[in-house]
Amino acid sequence: MTVEAALGVSAVVAVFMLVLTAMNMVLGQVRCTDAAVEAARLASRGDREQADAAVRRLAPPGASLAISVRDDQVTTEVSAPPVVGFLPAQWWTSRAAAVLEPGAAGSGPAEPAR
Prior knowledge:
With 114 residues, the chain is of the alpha+beta class. It has one domain (2-99). The protein contains 2 helices and 3 strands, in the order H-H-E-E-E. It has helices spanning 2-44, 48-58; strands at 64-70, 73-80, 92-99. A 3-stranded antiparallel beta sheet has the order 1-2-3. A hairpin with a 2-residue loop joins strand 1 (64-70) and strand 2. Helix 1 (2-44) runs antiparallel to helix 2. It is rod-shaped. 20% of the residues are buried.
C-alpha cells in the first residue's frame, strides 16, 4: 500500500511540474509577442530608444530586439532564451510589423499638414 501511495504522489508531483513548465513557456511567448508589438509601434514612430526600453520592461529577462526597416514597413523580432535549461536556445521568438508613420525617422519626407 505505501509503495502505491509513493508512486501516486510522485506521479501527481511530476504532472504538476509539467503543467507549471508549460504555463511558464506560454507566458514567456506571450510576453515576447507583447514586447514585439509594442516595439514595432514605437519604432514606427521613430522612437527606437523607447522600443528598447519596452522590450526590457515587457519581455522575459535576456531578451534581444532586432529592428529592420524596409520601404515603409518596420519589422521587429524579440527573442529570449528560456529560463529552463533543457529547452533549445531562442525558443521564445516573436515578430511584429508596423507601417512607418509620416515624418518618422526613415520614413522619407513628411506629408504636408492639411
